[in-house]
Amino acid sequence: MAYGDTQRKLYCLAVIECHSRLLYLEFTHSQRQETLHRCLLHVFHFFQGTPKELVHDNMLTAVLERQGPVVRFNEHFLEFLRPFHITPVACNVAQPQEKGKVEKGAIHYIRHNFWPLRTFRDLTDLQAQANQWRDQVANVRVHTTTGQQPMQRFEHKAMRSLPALLPDCRDTAQAKVHTDFSIRFDGNTYTVPPWLIGKAITVKADHHQVTCYFKDKTVATHLRCWQRKQRIELPQHREAAHTHHRRHWYSQEVAAFIALGETAKRYLEHLATTHEPLKKQIKKLLALKDDYGAQALLDAMQRATLHQAFGAHYIENILYQEMTPQRQHPPVRLKQPHLNEIRLEEPTLADYDAFVLKRTRV
Asked: Quick check: 257 and 268 in contact, CB under 8 A?
């Protein structure tokens, strides 16, 4: 089939047939618990109601274990069915005739009438083809057993109405926003606004969409990607990241670092192109200036620039190999933390000389 190697495994997770032989099928890339629930919810929408009983096999998403006729159902599966008042009926092991309509009829019919020579681009394309085949071929054919079209034989009145409040069947995960303003979800990265960097958010996804929430508020929505190792980015997030990045240049630490001269400014521009946190890098470089002196730091940055080595850890390694720290005692730490963060430009002796000469002339 025309399907890329980077795609995931494909499952026909939902094959449902009612007593009228009306058929529903849905393809997915996942066999997760939430995926099963979403497929069943789509089934109920298609049939415009719910049945009293649901006959199914012994998959782990429905049955955890059984001893003969004693069945221990999956608690999440029961919780999903509870609002619909549906009774689950698990077939006995190795007894396919108990759900023969699906096993021998629907699945066999799909395998030999829908799949042969079928090609598709992706999951969306495949499902669209399946829906068209279902509505224009499978459900309007004259069934060999009933002698009627399944669509005409189906009675909507036999189904019970859907409840007003439907369960949220999306895949749910907690994710941390990384420094590249993105979260990792299901083998891919999805971007969010950069002001969320370092925070934990909630991610919910269905077959087609990934939605990110922070404190129950939607902060980003993406089309779901079923490939692997892809970065899904919105242009507004990239622009906001540039704005967020520029704000670092106006911080007190950056101003003190730029005051060291042109060498420091050029090195800072190179630092901004790396993926390392800029604020953390500047803070480390200023600490090295306090330990080794401003001139030693500038010399180390010049050497690092020649070798295209941009990062505080490179500078620290150069200084460690070349000389010992000048400062023997750490500065006094004040009780108020914000006072310890204050940094002033280092005055030059020429300023004092000019002041003394001015006073002498007066």
From this structure: yes
